[in-house]
Amino acid sequence: MIIGSKIIYKDQLPSTNTYALELIDSGKPEEGTIICTDRQTTGRGQPGNSWESEPLKNLTFSLILYPEFIDPSCQFLVSMTISLGIRDFINKHAVFSSIKWPNDIYVNDDKIAGILIESSTMGGNIRFMIVGIGININQEEFRSQAPNPVSLKHVTGKTYDLPECLNDLTACIDSRYNELKEGRIEEIRKDYHRNLYRINKWTMFRDDSGEFTGRIQNVDDDGRLTIELKSGENRFYYFREVVFIP
Ligand code: BTN
Fold this sequence. Notes:
Blueprint: E1 7-13, H1 16-25, E2 34-40, E3 59-65, H2 76-92, E4 98-100, E5 104-107, E6 110-122, E7 125-135, H3 152-156, H4 162-181, H5 185-194, E8 203-207, E9 210-219, E10 225-229, E11 234-237, E12 243-244
Parallel strand pairs: 1-2
Antiparallel strand pairs: 2-3, 3-7, 4-5, 5-6, 6-7, 8-9, 8-12, 9-10, 10-11
The structure holds biotin (BTN).
The site of biotin (BTN) has 20 residues, from helix 1, strand 3, strand 6 and strand 7.
């Protein structure tokens, strides 16, 4: 077991991703090290966003990886792997979830988890990846401007034991990370696409030139999304170049 082989628990932290970066700056923490807190005071989301998490209600943690076996141009494979691990965990709890490109986990049309990956490359290799994961578990009320948050408790009505959830989730991510390490990449690609939110479904999107209808066809190993238009033309997007319109 790599993921969660070492868990650093802190009662309170501004951001587990920031703490992980500090650890890397001052040494080389073991691969799979997790930094976890029950109270994240200034959780970071995708650029420009914060991450809301009520103290003691959810999982907020960061995972340190050294996927040196992956070419930096294919590093989205790691994001696919982590998304699948989270999706496996949610589905184990009898909730059907899907992966919304590029880095959210959805239950129906609501967001249950977000991933923030911060990586560094050097000399053509991945030096490290910090995978920040926030999963809404027991929170019932959300106060931020996030448009559509949902928690496991909302969906199942149950209250969950957080350490048990962390244990289960790390096992799910570990199993997927092993698939990646063993080079079972085709399985990862296939499972990722099979579980992709709104794949092959006509959907409204917005890009620089306005709103349009299209359907998702594919996500490449570098994270590029392919959307087919009704005319048959394909459009290609990297992160933040296109958004879904609810
Ligand atoms: C997003 O959906 O915008 C990404 C959210 C990522 C939140 C997690 S919570 C643990 C880790 N530490 C942070 O500051 N952010 C990530």
